[in-house]
Amino acid sequence: MIMEKLAINGGPKAKITPNIPMYPGGLEIGEAEKKEVMETLDRKYLFRYYGPKEYPSKVAELEKRFTETFGSKYALAVNSCTSALISSMVAVEAGPGSEVIVPGYTFFASCAAIIAAKAVPVICEVDDTLTMDPADLEKKINKNTKAVIAVHMRGVPCDMDRITDICRKKGVSLIEDVAQSCGGSYQPREKTGYFRRYRVFQFSVSQNYYRR
Ligand SMILES: Cc1ncc(COP(=O)(O)O)c(C=O)c1O
């Protein structure tokens, strides 16, 4: 919608809904989540690969649901998004001497995972969507760049068309940090976390943090 007059100049308020509290994931916990947790405890099936034989693994069930939802071939559940990001660093062989590009506005884990791999985080500007600015990304890629971590902050998808094109052109791996947009979509054809149109290396990390 194009406003004739900005709110600051007496036009209609741009935002009329109240601010949501800063712990949105917790607020989404309801009966379904409680039931799953209680079922897991009741089954005494606490490990990933083994437990009482009469039950299926909840982790395996979750991974299967993920592949079905995202249309991906594989899903690997880990204990946190930080662990998923560190796993992605191992997968792309980021290490001493390599650089990984992250947006200036993200959660610190995106950078911490790069540091854990002993690679160097390189900060990319964000644009007015507060996600990675593709123009600056292109400038920051050099011969040491191993990967790019695109972060869909606060449910706002990055410009994945341009970012994937740049990564493909430059031959660098692309990782999506989907911690804040699990279940989100892009334009609205694709799910954040899995872009089928491209065959750039993709490693989606997800944590159901921000649901609205
Ligand atoms: C964008 C982003 N990446 C990574 C993480 C790390 O997730 P976790 O706390 O599960 O390690 C978070 C956590 O809020 C996040 O917001």
Number of domains: 2
Which sheet architecture does the biggest sheet show? 5 strands, parallel
Order of helices and strands: HHHHEHEHEHEEEE
- Could you give the order of strands across the largest sheet? 2-1-3-4-7
Q: What's the total count of β strands? A: 7
Envelope shape: globular
Q: What value does the average pLDDT take?
A: 85
Features:
single chain; two-stranded antiparallel ribbon; binds pyridoxal-5'-phosphate; disordered C terminus; five-stranded parallel sheet; about 30% helix; alpha/beta; Aspartate Aminotransferase, domain 2; 7 helices; about 15% strand
Write a structural description.
The protein folds into 2 domains: 24-67, no CATH class; 72-206, 3-Layer(aba) Sandwich (Aspartate Aminotransferase, domain 2), CATH 3.40.640.10. Strand 1, helix 5 (108-116) and strand 2 (120-124) form a beta-alpha-beta unit. The protein has a 5-stranded parallel β-sheet, with helices on both faces. The protein has a two-stranded antiparallel ribbon with strand order 5-6. It has helices spanning 24-27, 31-43, 58-70, 81-91, 108-116, 134-140, 160-170, and strands at residues 99-103, 120-124, 145-151, 173-178, 185-186, 190-191, 202-206. It has 212 residues and is of the alpha/beta class. It is globular. It is built from 7 helices and 7 strands, in the order H-H-H-H-E-H-E-H-E-H-E-E-E-E. It starts with 23 loop residues before the first helix and ends in a 6-residue tail after the last strand.
